[in-house]
Specification:
The protein is built from 5 helices and 2 strands; from the N terminus they run ββααααα. The chain is mainly alpha-helical. It has a two-stranded antiparallel sheet.
């Protein structure tokens, strides 16, 4: 009996399933940095959403700018977020935050952490 698996392009075959990035929907993230960073950022975004409307582009920009400024000023949160991004990836952090502007904020965070 021969088991042949053909793979083309990037990614790893795991049990016949081609994986390009973290499989967020089935992955159990036991990453304390991810969990704590997500809780802290979500609380920050919830607070900022009371001040700025997250349903408008202007509100999203204000929330993003304010959140990034506050993360930059908090060395512990900044370091934890960097670890979470490196170990779990931006998609995992976005999903863990569970906020309408999480994607925009995570992209901004990633930009200032890398640059």
């Amino acid at each position: 009996m021969t088991n042949t698996i053909n793979q083309y392009g990037q990614g790893d075959n795991i049990a016949g399933d081609k994986v390009m990035r973290d499989k967020i929907k089935t992955q159990i993230n036991n990453n304390p940095d991810l969990a704590q960073s997500a809780r802290d950022i979500k609380a920050l975004l919830d607070e900022l959403s009371e001040e700025y409307n997250p349903a408008t582009p202007k509100g999203q920009t204000k929330i993003k700018e304010s959140a990034i400024a506050q993360i930059k000023q908090n060395p512990q949160l900044k370091q934890r977020t960097l670890k979470a991004l490196k170990s779990a990836g931006e998609e995992a952090l976005e999903q863990a935050i569970q906020h309408p502007v999480a994607k925009v904020v995570v992209e901004g965070i990633k930009g200032f952490l890398e640059g």
